[in-house]
Amino acid sequence: MTTSLPELVSAHPLLAGLPGDAVASVAGCAQNVAFDPGDLLLAESEPANTLYLLRRGRVAIEVHSPGTGPIVIETLGPGAAVGWSWLVPPYRWHFDARALDAVGAVAVDGACLRDKAQADPALGYELMKRVAGVLLERLQMTRIRLLDLYGTGSAR
Question: Which of 2, 11, 32, 127 is least surrounded by Cβ atoms within 10 Å, i.e. has the fewest?
Answer without folding.
Answer: 2
